[in-house]
Sequence to fold (114 residues):
Amino acid sequence: MNHTFKRVKSNKGAYGVDGMGVDELLRYLKENGSQLRQSILDGKYRPNPVRRVEIPKEDGKKRNLGIPTVVDRVVQQAIAQQFTPIFEKQFSDNSYGFRPGRSAHDAIRKCQTT
Fold:
């Protein structure tokens, strides 16, 4: 969880529906971390609703964005840290979408060299 906390804190980001910012996260986890962990292990953890905001696009339109609470981001990051090494091995070497250390630019470079 320490690594997870550091990752979420370094990503910064806006507050969710609960109004808690990343600067308040460490104190919250110290006070509530064991209950949070137990609720996950018991299968009782339920994420909070996401805060919806509109982001302006270059063409003048707007794009909807959902912002989870910082606690939910910690839980999501912890799950990703556990599952990514397991499933990463199963992906095709030609798969680039949403993969650690890979990008759309890498996919384009691969196509140009093949």
